[in-house]
Amino acid sequence: MSSDGLSNGDHTGVVRRITCVGAGYVGGPTCAMIANKCPHIAVTVVDMNTAKIEEWNSDKLPIFEPGLEEIVKKCRGTNLFFSSDIPKSIREADLIFISVNTPTKMYGKGKGMAPDLKYVESVARSIAEHAGGPKIVVEKSTVPVKAAESILSILRDAQRTNNTLAFQVLSNPEFLAEGTAMKDLANPDRVLIGGEDSEEGKKAVAALVEVYSSWVPRERIITTNTWSSELSKLVANAFLAQRISSINSVSAICEATGADVSEVAHAVGFDSRIGNKFLNASVGFGGSCFQKDVLSLVYLCESLHLNKVAEYWHGVIEINNWQRRRFADQIIAELFNTVAGKKIAVFGFAFKKNTGDTRESSAIHVCKHLLEEEANIAIYDPKVEEKQMRMELGLTTSDDKVDKLVSVFSDPYEAAKDAHAIVVLTEWDEFKTYDYSRIYESMVHPAALFDGRLLFKRKEMESIGFRFFGIGTAPNHLTKVGFAAPS
Ligand code: UDX
Ligand code: ADP
After folding, report:
1. Known catalytic residue: 289?
2. Residue ranges of the chain with pLDDT lower than 50?
3. Which residues contact 11 (CB under 8 A, 6 or more apart)?
4. Distance between CA 186 and CA 177 in Å, rounded?
5. DSSP characters for 354-423?
6. Which residue out of 31, 38, 289, 367 is catalytically annotated?
7. Max CA distance (Å), the chain
8. Which ligand places an atom closest to the C-alpha of 45?
9. Is 57 helix (H, G, I), strand (E, B) or coil?
10. Residue nearest to atom 19 of ligand 2 (CA)
């Protein structure tokens, strides 16, 4: 029994106390939702970053996610706790989520491809050290297939010297998308739980199923073996990323022929076998998951000597990088082949709307390319802070020459004033509401608008006076071009 009388439990009992290690984009929102939907469960989120925990306990949460603040404020201090006392929280839990980051490894074997599992391993070691009794350990972090086995080896080693310990490791990948995390968690397409095919494994799976059953219909909770669950997460992200690379590859054909990528996506997506979601052509996908998970899948295939399969999935990443570069090159070409010394307004730096997250944002790549050409870039984003932008662009010293090429604005009209072009890199809804006649008048003419997110209608922008360049839409003169033999 713990100090407040709640049971420490075993694999067969009802889960009463959950600890989540990792208070990031996955751990924070997931645990807030569990606390909200399961008032009978005490949920504690811990992190080695004490400043982050202080923020979770303050009025300004460390991450922005629509609907999150309301739930945290409602549950915090009742059955939702944020703590830096990792050993105590591990000891008192019946079930422990591992929700730490698994970034792409930047050193040694698998550099630039494999996920770095050092954080997952360190949590496994902390659990082995502080558990003090039976625990269900749940991988939430996206991990390579068979990672559960490594976690289990560490935990079972501790069991050898302490027979009061007993562990089950489950895989329960998170499918939430940033910006819609709370909606995704409240009403998930599915919850996936993978576990060991043994009596104890089934009991552990049943215990976690029971937690989710508080609000998720039972038929949407899928249970599989551990490896299927781990692989499904990688494959789901790879399929989603592949769709974007597919439509982005088509956007290039559209620009060269006069077809319109939105019309093509609409027509193709009408086929119910294909479906109409995730077919928005763009300057390329960003975010912490897609690139990392596709690379992880590629690395897995290479490790299994499935080189053709690895090559196939690597194409998804290649098209994404090509699309970013293609867009940046087009900006330079259309601004008369030189952007040096020209002010270019960048609208949007986050990797997508409704988030302040900039990880792997295509904006970083496009801005870096423009900076290499010595453009003066003036960035406006409604949520991303200046220091975050500078960090992502690798600008650390204030007297650095490149540093001076970047200015950050809190008003989009000021960002666009005296600019030669506006470059739209994030699909924030507010970008559609501005007075573009006023913006156009304040710019250097001819003024260009590069729409990397298909927010605007060519005709409307051209009637204001803009030279308009949209991903997957051809300038009018191109629609008159006939067939040409491949060169
Ligand atoms: C993704 C998955 O959707 C989620 O299930 C998984 O758990 C984590 O990874 P997330 O990265 O938060 O979620 O965002 P998502 O909405 O998938 O967008 C990823 C990137 O693709 C963004 O840069 C977005 O702008 C881009 N995108 C998305 C497109 O370019 N076109 C589209 O049609 C959809
Ligand atoms: P994700 O998007 O996967 O949630 P984040 O980077 O937002 O990733 O969050 C992961 C969190 O995990 C970070 O706040 C980090 O400090 C925390 N973390 C990493 N390793 C450990 C560890 N060994 N113990 C506790 N917290 C950890």
Report:
1. yes
2. 1-12, 479-482, 487
3. 134, 136, 166, 168, 200, 203, 204, 207
4. 12
5. T----TT-HHHHHHHHHHHTT-EEEEE-SS--HHHHHHHTT---TT-TTGGGEEEES-HHHHHTT-SEEE
6. 289
7. 78
8. 2
9. coil
10. 100
pLDDT tens digits, one per residue of 447-460 = 999 999 999 999 99
Query: Which residues are paired to 44 by β-bridges?
Result: 19, 81
CA of 142, closest atom in ligand 1 = 7
Under a CB-based contact definition with an 8 Å cutoff, are residues 292 and 320 in contact? no
Nearest ligand 1 atom to the CA of 355 is: 12
Q: State if residue 142 touches ligand 2 by the CB under 6 angstroms criterion.
A: no
Q: Ligand 2 pocket test: which of 33, 48, 358 has the largest number of ligand atoms within 8 Å of its C-beta?
A: 48
Nearest-ligand number for the alpha carbon of 327: 1
Ligand 2 mean position, distance from CA 120 (Å): 9
Nearest atom in ligand 1 to the alpha carbon of residue 283 is 30
SS3 217: coil
Contact in structure between 123 and 100 (CB atoms under 8 Å)? yes
Per the structure block, which two tokens stand in for 291? 């690139």
pLDDT at position 483: 52
Question: Is 141 marked as binding a ligand?
Answer: yes
Dist. CA 472–CA 282, nearest whole Å? 9
Give the contacts of 393 (CB within 8 A, at least 6 positions apart).
364, 367, 368, 371, 402, 406
| Residue 427 structure tokens | 């699909």
What is the C-alpha separation between 267 and 408, in angstroms, rounded?
40
Residues 6 or more apart whose CB falls under 8 angstroms from that of 176 comprise 26, 29, 30, 184, 185, 188
Predicted confidence at residue 485, as pLDDT, reads 53
